[in-house]
Design goal:
By secondary structure, this protein is α+β, with helices and mostly antiparallel strands. It has helices at about 15-25, 40-50, 95-105, 115-120, 150-170, 170-190, 195-205, 215-220, 225-235, 250-265, and strands spanning about 1-5, 10, 70-75, 80-85, 125-135, 140-145, 240-245. The strands form two sheets. It has a five-stranded mixed beta sheet with strand order 3-7-4-6-5, covered by helices on one side. A hairpin with a 4-residue loop joins strand 5 (about 125-135) and strand 6. Helix 3 crosses helix 9 (about 225-235), helix 4 (about 115-120) packs antiparallel against helix 5 and helix 5 (about 150-170) packs parallel to helix 10 (about 250-265).
Length: about 270
């Protein structure tokens, strides 16, 4: 098997096996089982099937570095797709839940500021939302919008204004609603075996232990209006955003320039 690789030509099965052997090792694995399972049976099965899966831990990866910038690609599509990313927070950061609340208020559903202002009030897009993905050593705030080519520049100006405004004016009602949605999401995830397994695995990697539901709820409850605003201001000031735009029209470059003004304003 050979697969083309744009950087160094190609790689084959031997190189793929070498990569897996170097980075996927027993000390770095977590095996989770949820649902109608017997703990002792699962442990016995894992011990038997992974007995040969040994070796030292994988080498420490290079620390993540968030680098802003833009990637613009003109393509004959029905609409323009815009994705914006900003340097977020890692899983163990004490401000993570404030960051999650900020993201939820900004673009976490039909009641969010972005959805109401950009889509409902101004009709500048078909879809818009934001999210925050925390990892072990870093995190990513992301925003996506799909719009007409003629509306790209105006949409991005409104998005930048909404992000800046939210960091200063988020209110108690918005924070309370976002916290209620997050707690509801935790409870709904308990109904899914796969969601429970994914949550447990993430917690084991980040904290080395399962986090009780009461502790997670307490962390959400500890978020305040001021901590949410502070998380938004820190997000803006943390570094230059990255933006990717794909679609027709001549306004893609201007959208990237407008997005870059987020960091320039903070600086």
């Amino acid at each position: 098997m050979r697969i083309a690789h744009e950087d160094d030509g190609s790689f084959d099965r031997a190189r793929l096996a070498q990569y897996l052997g170097r980075n996927y090792r027993a000390p770095d694995m977590v095996i989770v089982a949820t649902g109608s399972v017997d703990h002792r049976s699962v442990v016995a099965e894992v011990e038997q099937r992974f007995a040969s899966f040994t070796g030292p831990a994988a080498p420490a990866p290079e620390p993540a570095r968030f680098v802003g910038g833009s990637r613009i690609e003109s393509r004959d599509l029905e609409q323009v797709h815009i994705a914006l990313a900003m340097h977020g927070l890692p899983q163990r950061d004490p401000n993570l839940y404030s960051m999650q609340v900020f993201t939820n208020v900004l673009g976490g559903g039909m009641s969010s500021r972005l959805f109401q202002e950009v889509r409902e009030q101004r009709g500048l897009c078909y879809s818009i939302y934001s999210f925050h993905a925390p990892y072990t050593d870093t995190g990513m705030f992301g925003l996506y919008a799909g719009t007409d080519a003629a509306d790209v520049a105006e949409l991005m100006r409104v998005v930048v204004d909404e992000i800046n405004t939210a960091a200063e004016t988020i209110n108690e009602a918005e924070v309370a609603r976002a916290k209620a949605q997050m707690k509801a999401g935790l409870l709904m995830a308990l109904e899914s075996s796969s969601a429970r397994a994914e949550q447990l695995a993430r917690q084991m990697f980040a904290w080395g232990r399962p986090i009780p539901l009461d502790e997670l709820v307490a962390r959400i409850e500890a978020v305040t209006v001021e901590s949410t605003r502070a998380a938004g201001r820190a997000l803006i000031a943390r570094g230059r955003p990255a933006i990717a735009a794909l679609g027709p029209g001549a306004g893609l470059e201007s959208a990237a320039t407008i997005a870059d003004s987020l960091y320039r304003r903070a600086a």
